[in-house]
Design a protein that fits this description.
alpha/beta, Urease, subunit C, domain 1, Diaminopimelate Epimerase, Chain A, domain 1, TIM Barrel, 8-stranded parallel beta sheet, 14 helices, 25 strands, 22% strand
């Protein structure tokens, strides 16, 4: 046997308990063929000496938004702008015709809230949409408000009202989406990410087009992608009654369809909003307010989507950030399983942001996978800690408590809401300190290896890909990342350089 590629001089952390480390890796036909003595005596078409570099399995981002992230690069950016005057200055003389789109708005840091009345003199009759950085709110001008009968607002819209405004702009063209996807793929590869789960296509808050899956087929990205389909596209089907499927997507497709490069993942559902927009649904109000957030829809409709998706064979990815939303999600999953038991359904809670101590046992009992975004607390931990208060702040985006309850934790970014680099997230999971230096739930800290596992095997498990991804194991797909330092001993994990990324045996050095 002749290997396609042999990597020597490695310090590999394989994440495989059967062989935790390796110094030589053999690759054949896009898969790991063997390690160390299993391949040392075999010839190879190419041999690369990594000179003692650290090698990990490729990072898997279990919840991200590639199209949205790429789109931000071609909209007017107001990130970090703190004054209404500053925003209006950025918008002056917007190029083109038709819709004006901008992103990066952060209402929390503004001198005062931006309104439609502020925007109208600058935008005129062109419809204008400014996305809040959370993805759960926006600011629009009067040209948009006039097209939204029944909505009374000064321009600030959240959740379903925001969705109504965004729907006016949709769809984006397939060519636009393809360009956005390719830009994002370049970014994630530079950070060592080899697979992404796109969190919601076809309809809903983050969708780009009802034809969105076609853009992923056309793009032929250099990374693996799993598509979460929005539950908004479920529709009644005339199936055989004995099948017990009331709603599905066309042809009955569900989780697992596709191949190792592009596949259907979970069905994406929303139960509440977000902490940045103060719309995550809590059992007790945000500190110092009477606002306890909101559900994304009526409980009846949300529960029906969970049950119907479960019956149709989907793995469910349920957006639930606040503890009240998590209660609802757990109750709905339990009801779906009562009606139609499915072993290893492996339903997920996306974000799982504020988890009370009494909820930990239920998450473990139901086998639900929390898909967390640790970098949220690095970026926004100071703010989140204030709005949660001293008692609840330690409950946010847990780590240690999940693991101690035997719960598999999956790491992700929610890019572009926060920094997408996995090493940044890993550092927060270990240090539990915000960008401002504040300790956020320090008792939830985990080890470096546990944090790496969350972003490799944990995310592979959440995406039902642990049989082929997540560890450097003979027979698995040859995805890995080469690092310039060892995260286990580095004082600055987020700054460890990514030297190269490999997908399917193709080694792509960083430029």
């Amino acid at each position: 046997m002749e290997l396609d590629l042999k990597l020597t001089g490695c310090r590999a952390l394989t994440m495989d308990p059967a062989r935790p480390s390796a110094h030589t890796i053999g690759i054949w036909q896009g898969r790991f063929a063997g390690l160390d003595e299993q391949v040392e005596g075999l010839p190879a078409t190419e041999t690369v000496d990594l000179g003692g570099a650290v090698v990990l399995p490729g990072f898997i981002d279990a919840h991200t938004h590639l199209a949205w992230n790429g789109r931000r690069g071609r909209t007017i950016d107001v990130t970090g702008v703190t004054t209404v005057a500053g925003v209006l200055e950025r918008l002056a003389n917007a190029p083109g015709e038709g819709w004006i789109e901008a992103s990066g708005y952060d209402r929390r840091i503004m001198d005062r809230p931006l309104t439609a009345a502020d925007l109208d003199p600058v935008t005129g009759d062109r419809p204008f949409y400014l996305a809040d950085l959370s993805g759960h709110a926006c600011v629009v001008n009067s040209a948009v408000l006039r097209q939204l009968p029944g909505i009374t607002s000064d321009g600030w819209l959240t959740e379903n009202e925001q969705l109504a405004a965004r729907t006016l702009r949709l769809p984006y063209s397939l060519d636009e989406i393809v360009g956005e996807l390719r830009e994002s793929a370049r970014q994630v590869l530079a950070e060592g990410v080899t697979m992404c789960a796109e969190a919601g296509i076809g309809a809903g808050l983050i969708a780009s087009s009802p034809l969105e899956a076609a853009a992923y087929q056309r793009a032929r990205l250099p990374i693996r992608v799993q598509l979460m389909v929005s539950a908004h596209v479920l529709h009644p089907v005339a199936a055989e009654p004995a099948d017990g499927i009331a709603r599905a997507i066309d042809l009955g497709l569900h989780t697992g369809f596709g191949d190792d490069r592009l596949s259907l993942g979970a069905l994406k559902l929303w139960t509440d909003g977000g902490m940045i927009a103060r719309t995550a649904a809590l059992t007790e109000p945000y500190a110092g307010t009477d606002n306890a957030g909101q559900f994304a829809d009526t409980e009846e409709l949300m529960r029906a989507a969970v049950v119907d998706g479960h019956h149709a064979g989907w793995q469910l990815a349920i957006h639930a950030i606040g503890d009240r939303a998590i209660d609802f999600a757990l109750d709905a999953v339990a009801e779906a399983q009562r009606q139609r038991p499915r072993a290893d359904a492996r339903h997920r809670i996306e974000h799982c942001g504020l988890v009370r101590p009494d909820q930990l046992g239920r998450i473990a009992e139901l086998g639900v996978v929390p898909v967390v975004q640790p970098t949220f607390l690095w970026a926004y931990g100071d703010d989140y800690s204030e709005i949660m208060g001293a008692e609840r702040a330690p409950w946010m985006y847990r780590g240690r408590s999940f693991l101690d309850h035997g719960i598999t934790v999956a790491g992700s970014s929610d890019r572009p809401v926060a920094d997408g680099a996995p090493l940044r997230a890993i550092e927060f999971m270990v240090r539990r300190r915000s960008s401002g230096g504040r300790a956020v739930g320090p008792d939830e800290a985990i080890t470096v290896e546990e944090a790496i596992r969350a972003h490799t095997l944990g995310s592979a498990y959440a995406c039902r890909k642990e049989d082929v991804l997540g560890s450097i194991t003979p027979g698995k797909l040859a995805d890995l990342v080469v690092l310039g330092d060892d995260p286990r001993t580095s004082d600055a994990i987020a700054d460890v350089p990514v030297l190269a990324t490999m997908v399917g045996g193709n080694l792509m050095p960083q430029r």
